[in-house]
Amino acid sequence: MNQNEMRIADSDVSLVSDEWEIINELLSLPGARVVELGCGKADKTRLVAQHAASVLALEVDSTQLANNQAAGEPDNVRFEYGGAENIPAADSSFDIVLMFKSLHHVPIELMDDTFSEIRRVLKPGGVAYISEPVYAGDFNEILRMFHDEKSVREAAFAAEVKAVSTHRLSLVVQKFFLQPMHFENFSQFENQILKVTHTDHTLSPALYDAVRSKFSHHLSPSGANFHMPIRVDLFRKDCS
Fold this sequence. Notes:
Blueprint (H helix, E strand, L loop, with lengths): L18 H8 L6 E5 L5 H7 L4 E6 L2 H9 L6 E5 L12 E7 L10 H11 E12 L4 H6 L6 H16 L4 E14 L2 H9 L10 H12 L2 E2 L2 E14 L4
Parallel strand pairs: 1-2, 1-4, 2-3, 4-5
Antiparallel strand pairs: 5-8, 6-8, 7-8
């Protein structure tokens, strides 16, 4: 598959899946040396570490990094400060690079450098697994009221296409799926989405009420359920 066949979205996607199932389908983790760029709360980091040989988990949000380090590290995980555009690791030192919904958080002017760094730290034949939210769906309609990510998601996709067209990486496969999301109530949405530490979501009272009203349309006695469309792009560093 080449860059001309890459798609930013799939309007016909119907697969509902937890991302861990996609990871297991596309990656071989046993014995792998892994670096995760933008590990966030490190939920997937710790799952990956149960199978991989080692994980270097990088984060630029100092508050979240401190929380991760304070929570304790599995023996084969290191939580360190570092950006995707300047990975603190030697050349050809990892079998797998992971980015879970973090590429579009990289400053646009540094996205190209990010792919140069990914190529640099991957071993020949190593793979980069990059998942990104697709700009569609009911949850996105709420999110874009206060944090419209259309331009940065498009820039992230363009950086991926450029990485393939410049032969830094080759595209192995694209996978689209719908990730289930559940919130018991608006308070949980507020704590998990509005109060993240990596982005300042300071809403005016009027906008806050509008977001709460739109969210409430999805509430049922069992909470609010969404299916977020996700695109996974799997790349390989060729051996040549």
